[in-house]
Amino acid sequence: MDERRYRSASGEPIALRRRQHSASCRELVVRCPRLQLRSLSAVTSAVWLAAYGLFALSENSMVLSAAIFITLIGLIVYLHFVKVDQESLLVIGSLGIQVTSSYASGKESTTFIEMGQVKDVVINEAIHMQKVIYYLCILLQDPGDPQGISEVVPLFQSSKPRLDCLIEVYKSCQEILAQRRTAPQVE
Fold first, then answer.
1. Class for domain 2-33+85-182, per CATH?
2. Of the residues 6, 118, 161, 170, which has the maximum number of CB atoms within 10 A of its CB?
3. Average pLDDT over all residues of the chain
4. CA 180 centroid distance within chain
């Protein structure tokens, strides 16, 4: 197992962990920064202080109750649907590619793409807010046209690794795809 430190497109520290299970099976995990208790406490305190200020002006206890309720619901939604702790890519040359996102609440979201559908894995670039960003994506083969692409599946959407990290993941994926292309096809 190999772990290296990189930065995300926004400059936050991320870690890439590479694990080779066999010659045709690799797992690549990008870990995002953990939720900081300091920032969570600051936001909660700010909301509750504002609610207390409104309570002092209006003398209505519903303001305090609503602030507590909204803060707790917002935190649950953030942890369960927004804050991703890690994203992983499991590439198995004979089966396919599994993409998993693990959220701060413990929830996991997994997608599996059969290797027969995978045309290629590429690094693409996009211009966003006067900045060029790079992202890794899987090109899915069009069943009706062997030369065509039916869909583009972007990877690592939450962690947004920079180009140096994406190149490492890209090389690992391409090594397995190259083995698959050169292996004799059994029909």
1. mainly beta
2. 161
3. 91
4. 26
